Each structure stands twice: as structure tokens, then as C-alpha cells.
Amino acid sequence: MIECLKFCIADITFALLTDDPDLKIGVDGAMNKFLVEEVEPDIRVHTKWKDLHMQIDGKMIFDSGALWQIYSENGSYLFRFTSSALGSLPYKVASFNRDFTNGEVSLNRSYFDPDKPIYPLEYPLDELMINNFLARGKGVEVHSCGIVDSQGFGHLFVGQSGAGKSTIARLWPDESDVTILSDDRIILRKKENTIWMYGTPWHGEAGLASPAKAPLTRIYFLKHGEKNELVAQKPSDSISHLFVCSFPPFYSGEGIDFTLGFLEGVVRNVPCYELKFIPDKSVVEFIQEERFT
Amino acid sequence: MSGRGEKDAGRPKKPYTKPEVKQVHLKPEEAVLGFCKETIGTVGAGGFCLLTCPTLGS
């Protein structure tokens, strides 16, 4: 019997499957909001237990400097996850075909509790998978907070850690007609000449995540200030700011090329501003007033 | 057939602006996925990152 869970993030559907009766797959937290029922997946990922070895056949093409390295092997990509806290053997290995539509995740049984449900795509693998899929002509994920106001307009607040994304998210009215897509990660995609912003499960300190989406109306590059102020940005500066807050596959020239081209398309269609702001409710009123000018 | 010169006739020339190189700071620990986000909510179902996170408790 095949156990299967399906998810949808930014209109990308993926199925997590296993036919191993000893492997229970599950998910909790924000990812639960992204579960879907019957749908044809864009990405299929099979999961199994496996005795993993230190040696990987294939050429290493990138070392994250954190938990994972990526290898190129027989036309596929292979992610190897290790931690010094656990020893030299990988605790997980994931391989994907070149267009990231099919993958296989192998879990090292000795590092998991087989009696508890396991989410094989646990961070950062799920986000890596989605970002690599996006980089193949689909879109870009941005380190940002996304808010849909009561009129349905999408506001993207971009910034690295400490810029104020979660702070901004917490300031918006807690009303049913305002949607916080995420206080940390937003995916941008283009559909029929409109740039859409999508919520993701990968939230920040505020813990806000939603599978909703909205047309992107304005982009704000966050900066702490002594007063609330908007400064229009040149396209070249906006592309630079967006690029350093995105997660392109640095080991792929084509992925970088697509990311830059996509961001250029974004800034040419969406007004971009530097937002100097005071971290209180006044910035919300300021933005809502400015939207009409 | 009109050339560029005829098209621009009458339009004031924009002042020349010397191209400049601007540096934008990219933080590798944020641009490359997998570094600790210091938010428990991000680490997933089994809390596996709690076992592997090198900055846990910092």
C-alpha cells in the first residue's frame, strides 16, 4: 500500500509517497495549511529507509557550509545532509532529476524514531526542492513579508534578518479582511502578465503563514527610520535589493540567469520603494494612505 | 525614412550621468538555505533540527 501526502505551495503541487510499511510520514505546524486532496502533482517524491554511506558517487558542485552539499550524479542532482552533531554519516540523502519533477529521499534509520511520523522533506529540503523547481522558469522566492490589505492589494516588505519583516506583519490590523501571507518567505510568480505573491509555510518569528495569494501591488525595501517615508527606487537598485533577498541556486548559471531576468520583469511592472519606517501602527496608516497617491 | 537624429530633434538632451558601481550586501547565511533561522516553527515535524542545529541555545 502506498501512503501519500500532497501539498500545494505557490500553485506548485508535490506528492510525498512511501510504500514502506515501517515508514510513517506526517507533517505538523504551518505545513498542515498547505495539504491538499486529490490533485495531479508537479513533483513526486518517494521516500524510504536506507543504510547510507559516507561516500557519494558523483561530483560535488556546491557546499552550503551548513547541513547540505549537492552533487551531480548521472544526470541527477543529489543532496546530502550531514551534521557534525550526528557524526560523519548522512542522516538523509535526496536525489532529483534535472527538472526537479521526480525525487527520492532516503532516510538513515538510525537517526530517526520509527515510531513517530516523519516529514522527510523537513527544512531545508522542502524549500530547496521548491526553489530549484522555481528556478526552472517558474518564479522566485523572496525573503520578505507579504500582506494583502482589505482592498485585496498585495504589499511585499523585503529585507534580510532584522530589517523588520515580522515587526511589520504584527502591526497590521488583526481583521478578517487582512491576510498575512507570511512574515518571512514569499514566492513570486507571473501569471498572464500579472505578478502574484504567494504565502509559504516557512514563516518567521511571528509564526504567520497562509496558502493564499494576491496580485503584487507594491514592493517596499525595509529600513529603520525616524519617520515614515517612501523613496522611489531605480529598477537597477530594486533588482539588486531583491536578488540579495532571494534564494537562487548559486550552482546553476541558468538558474541565476532566470532569477535575474524574472526580477527585472517584476520591477518593471511593480512600483518599488525604500520604506523608512517607525515600528508602530503609524506605518500601516502611512502605507494605506500612500497607496492612493 | 526618419533616422534617430530626426526623431530626437527638439528634445533636450539628458545630462550625462557617469555609470557607477554600487555594492549590495549579500549575506551567505541567509541566501543559502539551511542555516538556523532561530525560529522553532520553521524546523518541521520531528524537530529534527533541534538535534542538528549548531546554534541551539545561543
| Gross geometry of chain A | globular
Find the biggest chain interface: A-B, 49 and 26 residues
Order of helices and strands of chain B: HHH
> What is the rounded Rg of chain B?
27 Å
Low-pLDDT residue intervals, each spanning 5 or more residues of chain B: 38-47, 50-58
The SSE string of chain A, one letter per element, is EEEEEEEEEHEEHEEEEEHHEH
Strand content of chain B: under 5%
Question: How much helix, percentage-wise, in residues of chain A?
Answer: 10-25%
- Based on helices, strands and strand pairing, what is the structural class of chain A? alpha+beta
How many angstroms does the end-to-end distance of chain A come to? Answer: 59 Å
Our estimate of the beta-strand percent of chain A is 35-45%
Mind summarizing the main beta sheet of chain A? Answer: 9 strands, mixed
Helix % of chain B is 10-25%
Oligomeric form: heterodimer
Would you kindly provide a brief summary of this structure?
The complex is a heterodimer of chains A (293) and B (58). Chain A is an alpha+beta fold and 293 residues long.
